[in-house]
Design brief:
Layout (H helix, E strand, L loop, with lengths): L4 H11 L4 H8 L3 H9 L7 H11 L3 H5 L13 H7 L2 H14 L3 H14 L10 H16 L2
Helix pairs in contact: 1-3, 7-8, 7-9
Length: about 150
């Protein structure tokens, strides 16, 4: 069974030899909030929060929210998202975001895929290709505001 988000955060934090207080200092988040993230499965952090934690821990957002599959591995994704991730449209979006954010293509691909993979957990039913495109637009806007 794949680790939960909280288990992943705890694992990466402990690998660094950090306490929750150390992670709080590195991210600007509160110790109680980080504790909730690690211990309560219902806590739903924002992409900015996940990015902050991932940067502090030296991993990617995909590493934190992944389901045990390699980031971006289509077989681990919902069918409509898997098709999108394999498309030229997705690759063009990754390239665009990479250029605008000065982040590597691999990092953007991994983080965008992880961001999209979390979306179905917040909805009921399979998302359409249009839904995935809208979520890519949201990701682009979020990353451009950083």
């Amino acid at each position: 069974m794949a680790p939960t988000l909280g288990e992943s955060i705890r694992r990466y934090r402990q690998r660094k030899g950090w306490t929750l207080k150390d992670l709080a200092a590195a991210t600007g988040l509160s110790v109680p909030y980080l504790s909730d993230l690690e211990r309560r499965p219902g806590v739903n952090p924002t992409l900015d929060t996940l990015t902050s934690i991932a940067l502090a821990l030296g991993c990617t957002v995909a590493d934190l929210v992944g389901d045990g599959a390699k980031p971006g591995e289509p077989s681990a994704l919902p069918p409509t998202l898997a098709r999108l991730v394999r498309s030229d449209e997705f690759e063009q979006e990754v390239q665009l975001i990479s250029r605008r954010s000065s982040r590597s293509v691999e990092e953007v691909r991994s983080d965008l895929t992880a961001f999209l993979a979390v979306a179905p957990k917040r909805s009921s039913g399979e998302l359409s290709v249009t839904d995935w495109r809208r979520l890519m637009d949201v990701y682009r806007v979020i990353t451009e505001d950083r």
